[in-house]
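To make this tangible, we now present a fold written out as tokens:
***
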Amino acid sequence: MMELPEAAVIARQITETLTGKRIASAVANASPHKFAWYSGDPAEYNDRLASQVIRGAETGKLSAKAFLATEQRIPGLGNGVLQDILWTARIHPKRKMAELSDQAIDDMYIAVKSVLADMVAKGGRDTERDLFWQPGGYRTVLSRNTVDTPCPACGTTIRKEAYSGGAIYVCETCQPL
């Protein structure tokens, strides 16, 4: 799934590149890109993260990773971008939502907004490609590129682990379980 930062960058590039131009021919099904679409009204996304949703009986059982990256609660937010969001909020991906303090939930919400905005502003993540097949300018803190390197905040070695149908990348000092 293409995630929000790259979708925003590619949408901007398409607008800048194609506005005023005429398509002479096209080849179907030849793009390496996948597009993510909004689910519902984006103006309601803030309310989706409100305490009722976060503290509900069903979501309370979910891990932070599952809460952010499943069921399109926040369309365009998947496993790739949630790594840096959770690191920024200092939340371990396995931590259950019911265990998070109000401050941790506020930190998660702020991290979702700030990290995604930073990724978009920098042209997407360095682990992904734009419309012209160039890597993004946002340097991921936790990704396949940073496994076994020191955490930029504390120096602890970043590790990778299989979890919940995918990979998680964690600094065990900054993100204690």
About this structure: The domain at 4-139 is CATH 1.10.8 (Helicase, Ruva Protein; domain 3). The mean pLDDT is 86. The chain has one domain: 4-139. The two ends are 28 Å apart (CA to CA).
